[in-house]
Amino acid sequence: MTELPFTTPLQFVGLALALLAGWLLGMATSANGRRWREQYEQERDQHQAVRNELSTANTRIRDLEAANSRLERNLADRRAPEPAHSDPKSRRETAMRSWFYGGTDVLSRIRGIDEHRERQLNQLGIQQFRDIENLPREDELPLEERLGVPHGTIVDEQWREQAAMLRSGHAEEHERRFGRVA
User: Fold this and answer.
1) Over the stretch 101-160, which tens digit does the pLDDT of each residue have?
2) DSSP string of the chain?
3) Of all helices (H) and strands (E), which one includes residue 166?
4) Tell me: the pLDDT tens digits for 48-59?
5) For range 21-50, the mean pLDDT
6) Residue 138 gets which letter from DSSP?
7) Residue 111: exposure state from Cβ atoms within 10 A (0-12, 13-18, ≥19)
8) pLDDT band at 39, cuts 50/70/90?
9) Is residue 65 over pLDDT 90?
10) How far apart are CA 177 and CA 182, in angstroms?
11) Rounded-to-integer distance, Cα 92 and Cα 29, Å
């Protein structure tokens, strides 16, 4: 009867470790091992690219949320009583508009603001001509993005100037310069 070369548990563990090391060494040096390594590196690079994209998107989201909260804070801070109009016709129009529209100005009278955009502006807390007139420059871009209008629309369409004219009761001058809107 021949005696087995491995008789103790420690010898079997040594044999298992030697076989495992040989298998790993064979994988690392064979062509299949190189393909596995290349595939691993490719997957790792793709994963890093996705993480970078998510990081960029998260940064953009945080920036937009900060701009949105700043815009909402500024709008809330600017609520002040509107000055009285000088001519009786303008006071009558304002009283009727206030009664019909629940205290909001008809922002669709401004060229570049249709009824849909007026509803969007009202939902954002912009309900008076003075809100547009006093809109800070740094809030233009976030507002244009929320409304889905091209960048620079507020300046190009002169929303502030139109709002100032309409708020001060110069509807005829507004119509002469910007045309009849609503």
Assistant:
1) 556 788 889 998 999 999 999 898 899 999 999 999 999 899 999 999 999 999 999 999
2) -PPPS--SHHHHHHHHHHHHHHHHHHHHHSHHHHHHHHHHHHHHHHHHHHHHHHHHHHHHHHHHHHHHHHHHHHHHHT--PPPPPSSHHHHHHHHHHHHHHTT---GGGSTT--HHHHHHHHHTT--SHHHHHT--GGGHHHHHHHHT--TTHHHHTTHHHHHHHHHTT-HHHHHHHH----
3) helix 159-167
4) 999 999 988 888
5) 84
6) G
7) middle
8) confident
9) no
10) 14
11) 91
Name the amino acid, one letter, at 12: F
Closest CA to 163 of 117, 125, 108: 108
Look-up: residue for tokens 């009202």? 122
Number of residues written out for the chain: 182
Q: How far is CA 120 from CA 124, 145, 167, 182, in A?
A: 6, 12, 20, 17
Of residues 97 and 42, more confidently modeled: 42
Are 160 and 133 in contact by the 8 Å Cβ rule? The answer is yes
DSSP-derived secondary structure letter, 127: -
Residues 119, 108: Cα–Cα separation, whole Å = 9
